[in-house]
Structure formats: structure tokens, C-alpha cells
Design brief:
By secondary structure, the chain is α/β, with parallel strands linked by helices. The protein is built from four helices and five strands. It has helices spanning 12-25, 42-50, 66-71, 80-83, and strands at 2-3, 6-7, 31-34, 54-60, 74-78. Strand 4 (54-60), helix 3 (66-71) and strand 5 (74-78) form a beta-alpha-beta unit. It is globular and about 45 Å long.
Length: 90
């Protein structure tokens, strides 16, 4: 969403939650990979897990979400070294 030339994320957490739940109910995946530290997603994650699906949380080592780590099946934290090859250097 744009406001005065500045873009803001709006409704992304709801869209992620819906996608997680629809995919779990429709049996579209066995394992979901979540790259977000938004703890608003925890209720959806709990339901996904209750439906027998696995959820892998991917976060950043300098600012992990311990709540998401606790509720995920598996947790991976990325280090700066993991990302270096993807960063464009001038």
C-alpha cells in the first residue's frame, strides 16, 4: 500500500495465515516453510500443526522469534554468512 510515496505492508499476515490454513485443509502440502517473524501467525501455525502438517520457521539469527521457534516443527536461523552470496556488492 502506498501512502505519500512510501510503501507499507498491509494485510500480508492475514494472507499468509489464509494460505497456510487453506493449504493444510486442502492437503496441498506436507511441510510449510514460513519466512516471517510475525507472531500474529501463531494461531494459524497451531491449527496447521493440529491438522498434522509440519511448519518450518526460517528467521534471522540477529533477531529470532522465540515464540515462532517454540510453535514450529523445525526452526532455522540464517546467519549473515548464509546471505553474503546474495548481496550485490558495488
Amino acid at each position: 500500500m502506498e501512502n505519500g510515496g512510501i510503501f507499507h505492508e498491509k494485510g500480508v499476515d492475514v494472507k499468509i495465515a489464509v494460505d497456510l490454513l487453506v493449504g493444510a485443509y486442502d492437503n496441498l502440502y506436507d511441510v510449510a516453510v514460513l519466512i516471517s517473524s510475525d507472531t500474529d501467525l501463531i494461531p494459524a501455525i497451531k491449527k496447521v500443526r493440529h491438522l498434522g502438517k509440519e511448519l518450518e520457521y526460517v528467521g534471522f539469527s540477529h533477531l529470532p522469534s522465540f515464540a515462532l521457534q517454540k510453535n514450529a516443527t523445525l526452526s532455522r536461523l540464517l546467519l549473515r554468512d548464509d546471505l553474503e552470496s546474495f548481496i550485490k556488492k558495488d
